[in-house]
């Protein structure tokens, strides 16, 4: 059983790496690819680059809970295969597209089938004991983070080496192979727990269950905030780095300043998950939110690029525990029969942050300058930490009252 669980974890780590990479690898050259279709104005290319990138996450925001629900009902491995081959097909077809509208539609379809990662989390979560859920899910999250971190790099290297068309073609083939690896390598099992068989709930009942748990709601809000903060500065980061530099390699150093956050996240995510297993995932989530805000705010006051790089690395380490601890808390608080759907809602909040972040960051930068983006996002971190602290305090008070009543009885 243990050997099979480790094998499943390794296979899903590899598959999540390639799927996460596919979602971000188009970033370095999406505007360049659009320019190959026809002679467009710069404004047209910039506008459609944003639309084409954002539509995947916007559609995924609505669809992710449905894939989670289908996985709970019909089996998570089946959903992994449907979404994995679906993503591969959408990317493969992009190599044959020669119009902006066609690329937009395929990225929209990619959003429809972007249920692979939350379903993989649900599958591994269901076969993991609650006591080690944070450590295991933190390890799995490393695959997702690694893919998102190296995706733009791999996409840029492939585009320079073989061209845009073959980049999509090769990526589609690789994701198909990773999904086939899941087909033959994964065996779906569920850890048996000492509880009565859970009745099947409707989507409305699942939402009511989530809303009834204020800690669970805040866990999802934290997922939204970390993505919003991360992506709020992304469109402006190259400009911000340019203000700190007098050298010519602005693009490289701006890319380093952004990617180093993912590197810090990668290093720390398993550690935070293990600490959550030890002291409680909600507590670690609170600590990560506070530290995240502390190290995000000073980025507004840096005077050289290396100060920014160091602060963003530490910030990445600070927020490394938010996703695994959020997932592990859901593993502990939610019955196995509906975990996939709830994880889908959590993933939807993350996708929403991917869309809201660049929009709000762009508006704030346009009104009050790029530094204001750091102020805004830091405030979000501290506000979320305060709300979670008050909720945890109220929950602890309620538990103490129940204990005193039971003792008196």
Task: Detail the topology: elements first, then pairings.
Layout (H helix, E strand, L loop, with lengths): L1 H23 L5 H6 L6 H33 L1 H19 L5 H13 L3 H11 L6 H30 L1 H22 L17 H10 L1 H19 L1 H11 L5 H30 L1 H16 L8 H14 L3 H12 L5 H30 L2 H38 L1
Please explain how this structure is put together.
It is a single chain. By secondary structure, the protein is mainly α. It has 2 domains: 1-187, Up-down Bundle (Growth Hormone, Chain: A), CATH 1.20.1250.20; 201-409, Growth Hormone, Chain: A, CATH 1.20.1250.20. It is 82% helix and 0% strand. It has helices spanning 2-24, 30-35, 42-74, 76-94, 100-112, 116-126, 133-162, 164-185, 203-212, 214-232, 234-244, 250-279, 281-296, 305-318, 322-333, 339-368, 371-408. The protein is globular. The model has no long low-confidence stretch (mean pLDDT 84).
**Structural class of the helix and strand makeup?**
mainly alpha
Number of helices: 17
| Main sheet makeup | none
Q: Give the total of beta strands.
A: 0
Instruction: Indicate the CATH topology of the largest domain.
Output: Growth Hormone, Chain: A
How would you summarize what this structure contains?
By secondary structure, the chain is mostly helical.
């Amino acid at each position: 059983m243990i050997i099979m669980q480790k094998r499943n974890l390794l296979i899903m780590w590899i598959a999540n790496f390639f799927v996460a990479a596919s979602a971000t690898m188009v970033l370095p050259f999406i505007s360049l690819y659009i320019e190959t279709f026809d002679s467009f104005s710069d404004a047209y290319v910039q506008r459609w680059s944003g639309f084409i990138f954002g539509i995947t996450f916007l559609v995924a925001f609505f669809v992710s809970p449905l894939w989670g629900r289908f996985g709970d009902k019909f089996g998570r491995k089946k959903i992994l295969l449907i979404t994995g081959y679906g993503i591969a097909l959408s990317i493969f077809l992009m190599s044959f597209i020669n119009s902006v509208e066609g690329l937009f539609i395929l990225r929209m379809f990619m959003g429809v089938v972007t249920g692979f990662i939350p379903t993989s989390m649900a599958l591994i979560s269901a076969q993991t004991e609650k006591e080690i859920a944070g450590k295991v899910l933190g390890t799995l999250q490393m695959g997702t983070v690694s893919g998102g971190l190296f995706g733009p790099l791999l996409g840029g290297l492939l585009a320079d080496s073989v061209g845009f068309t073959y980049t999509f073609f090769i990526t589609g083939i690789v994701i198909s192979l990773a999904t086939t690896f899941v087909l033959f390598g994964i065996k779906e099992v569920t850890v048996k727990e000492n509880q009565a068989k859970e009745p099947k709930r409707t989507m409305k009942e699942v939402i009511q269950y989530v809303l009834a748990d204020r800690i669970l709601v805040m866990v999802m809000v934290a997922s939204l905030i970390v993505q919003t903060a991360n992506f709020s500065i992304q469109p402006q980061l190259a400009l911000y780095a340019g203000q700190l530099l007098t050298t010519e390699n602005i693009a490289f150093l701006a890319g380093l300043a952004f990617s180093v956050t993912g590197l810090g996240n990668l290093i720390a995510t398993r550690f935070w998950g293990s600490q959550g297993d030890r002291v409680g995932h909600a507590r670690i989530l609170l600590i990560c939110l506070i530290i995240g805000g502390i190290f995000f705010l000073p980025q507004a006051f840096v005077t050289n690029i290396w100060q920014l790089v160091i602060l963003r690395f530490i910030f990445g380490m600070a927020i490394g525990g938010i996703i695994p601890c959020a997932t592990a808390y859901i593993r502990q608080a939610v019955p196995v029969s509906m975990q996939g759907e709830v994880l889908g809602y959590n993933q939807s909040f993350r996708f929403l942050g991917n869309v809201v972040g660049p929009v709000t960051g762009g508006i704030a930068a346009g009104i009050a300058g790029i530094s204001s983006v750091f102020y805004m996002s830091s405030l979000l971190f501290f506000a979320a930490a305060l709300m979670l602290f008050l909720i945890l305090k109220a929950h602890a008070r309620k538990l103490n009252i129940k204990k005193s009543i039971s003792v008196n009885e």
